[in-house]
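Retro notes
What went well: the complex prediction finally ran end to end.
Inputs used:
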Amino acid sequence: MTMTSAADAGSRAPLLSIRKVAKHFGRNVVLRDISLDVAEGEFLTILGESGSGKTTLLRIIAGFERASAGELWMGEERLDRQPPYRRRVNTVFQNYALFPHLTVEQNVAYGLRVAKRPEAEIASRVEEALDKVKMAAYAKSKPSRISGGQQQRIALARALVNRPRLLLLDEPLSALDANLRRQMQVELKSLQREVGISFIFVTHDQEEAMVMSDRIALLRSGELEQVATPREIYGRPATAYAAQFIGHTNLLKCEVRGGMVRCAPLSWSAALPDGPALFSLRPENIRMTTASTTIAGSVRVRGKVSHQAFHGATELIRVECRDGLVLVVRTPGGGGALDEVELEFCSTDAVLVRESLVRESPGRESLVRESAERI
Amino acid sequence: MFSRAYKAAVTLPPLVWVTVFLLVPYGLMFCYSFWSVSESQTIVHSWNLANYRQLLKVDVYWQTLLRSMWIAARVTIFSLLMGYPLAYFLSFYAGRRKDLLYQLVIIPLWVSYLVRAYAWKTILGSDGVLNTLLQYVHLTRHPLEFLLYSPFAVVLTLTHIYTPFAFLPIYAALEHIPRNLVEASHDLGATPGQTFWKVIFPLSIPGVAAGATFAFVLSLGDFLAPLLLGGPSGIMISNVVVSLFGAAYNWPLGAAISLCMLVLVVSLLFFSERLEKKWSFS
């Protein structure tokens, strides 16, 4: 499913094309050289920490903020020269931004009213939109009388009723509690499939991004680290930052010489040019083993367990090996207390990653330590 | 949570203050309005409605009251017409100059009321700045007489004085409008004009109501501007009250007029507050 939509994205003309967009406020650079295409019907998530520029990028697409450089194209139309009220883009705001003086119904009808649609059409479309988000019963309520989750649905209906070509969602689930949040993730995703409108979803929550998106655009300090499907970005992270931000990982600082990768006390063969290299190895790709025979391509190391964190279905174990190497291993939970263990992983599971492009990225050592300490 | 002594210590001073300076004087005024003055210029403490009957019968009283209300209404309208665009500009478009401009609006409030009223006298008089200028550029041959000692002068001066009072609550209301509502409106396809009338203005109504109430109530009770600039045709009801309590020595009639004004103002405040409540949503 995700693979086909990614393939579609390549073949068809993109709905929205972001070309070399940059933004700075005074001397403060918020976005640098962002180029990104959004396909028709795609659910794209812009994922990043706070301050990464994700909301600014969204505001530039919506038209609330003007890009310092670059262009936005929607089909043949230059979007960034249009005021927000002429763009066929609607936004679901972080705290919903419902009009407090209007009823739920009037809020949803707002876009159609200002477009001067006939009253009969407004009535039927508003009703349909409220039905779609299961809020028809609250049509006459004021926004202050309904809960956060309900306001969220109204904000969604208010945007979708205008049949935009692109819907922007600015951390719409961040204000909801965990259970409602998971429920809304599923609902939002199925609603998106149903209406077939492209969504650009902004979040700082990598789990949310993984669950909902066709593709994830990972933003860091105003630059795109990687744009890929959730599976790809998890399985084949392009940079050390991508590997760490999405899920847990072990970052291995290695040295390649003569087709052998060395990261004392580990070593395996790989067809790589000589020089330093950085590998990401997911904790679940490391196994504890007791077998005495080694399979081809597997790498083994002994170590002492220094910390165990029980997560329910799985357990994260911190293992200190020789030469200061620390590995985090994910095992099925409930193994009891561990001491000395033998670890094994398949060398093809160690993914070569780039150092992050961002200049102010911390050194490799600290990255490795950080990743080990995050369990 | 708090001890009784603490509660008493906190509530007693304002209670005493309100009693001594508000309730007792109002009570006295209420009583006076039903008393009368004898021919020997003493207050007769006999209860009757003569004062109120006189208010209705003698044209000059209710006409002056109506004229005062008409002046106050004009002052209110002009203050809103000046104050609203100013507040709107400051709140939405002034950017970094916001604080400076805000101070500029407030500064006149630091200047004595009397000075401002006298300033208008200097400007509007027959030898005043405006008339001299008009004659100098040969727009008029003789000084324009209606400029000073007229309801016009009173309305102008009071508008100048009370515009900041209309401005302040409107500005506060506009500042309280979450900016993402404006963005949401634009996002949904509303032009800036539509956004103003459908979102910004409705949400600023509590401020407009408060500003209008300030301007109306304060100018209705004003007596200095009509005294200094009003002339015979610009007399307002407070001037009548002042003279009744002073030279005319008819406290009961003055009290009756004051009570009527009090009822008028209190009911106005009541309606204004209801309007504000109805249009606030936080």
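What we learned: The two ends of chain B are 28 Å apart (CA to CA).
What to try next: split runs per interface for comparison.
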